[in-house]
From TrEMBL:
It catalyses: Hydrolysis of DNA containing ring-opened 7-methylguanine residues, releasing 2,6-diamino-4-hydroxy-5-(N-methyl)formamidopyrimidine. InterPro entries: FPG_cat, FPG_N, H2TH_FPG, Ribosomal_uS13-like_H2TH, Znf_DNA_glyclase/AP_lyase, Znf_FPG/IleRS. PROSITE patterns: FPG_CAT, ZF_FPG_2. This is Fpg/Nei family DNA glycosylase. Residues 2-93 form the Formamidopyrimidine-DNA glycosylase catalytic domain.
Amino acid sequence: MPELPEVQALAADLKQRLVDRAITRIDLAAFSALKTFDPPLHSLHGTLVEDVTRHGKFLDITASGTHFIVHLARAGWIRWRDEVPALPARPNSKNPLAARVVIDDPETDRQAGLDITEAGTKKSLAIYVVRDPREVEGIARLGPDPLADEFTIDALKAILEAEGRKQIKGVLRHQGTIAGIGNAYSDEILHAARMSPFKPASSLEEADVQTLYDAIRDTLGDAVARSSGLAASELKGEKKSHLAVHGRTGQACPVCGDVVREVSFADSSLQYCPTCQTGGKPLADRRMSRLLK
């Protein structure tokens, strides 16, 4: 799932490609992806792209005052194409294409554009056309951006106190609490902080809060810096190559050499290092425990 660093890099890459260029048309290939009807999708045809930004994990292409917003969900991605087919994209259940944004290129006879795709059968990708980003419920409910100036250690302390006994892993992932952190970077942040994912939020001492705050800012900041300037096609590989524990079950922890372990849930999993994070004790994998009974 694309998270804050990847979405920020996507926004930067698309901004230098799209700003001051006209949207010729937008082809919708997966009708279920479009979540709004006013303004209509075709209202963007002929508009001029003014900016590309992000809100948490939402990508926002602003064109002539209207916002084309995409949430890539778990399996969505964006691919730039120097030339797109002349014929409009058609709905096809076997095709991962959800939508295509065709861009006018006044310097050539070709039309470039970007394909918004979603792999797999579980379709969660969402597209919104709105006059104000806050009309998207998910954006209106976002917590503070962890790389923004207003996300201070005092802001984090207040969040942790308000979340009470909730597990710190869930607190980091909840978009209404802190925007932009997903499953992968929450694992990486907690590994950097040497903290158990099951630790209650309100149990953190003063020094723990500082450690967690530094891990959030450093882990995300470093990922953003590494991703800066990369094309969309390079971002997935860059992210995967720098993960310490996430997606590395059974491999050696790069810090201590212990085996990275996993806890599985109904539709996701987390990875952690016992030596670095839980005092050497493996966490109970509840799903596996039920299967063994």
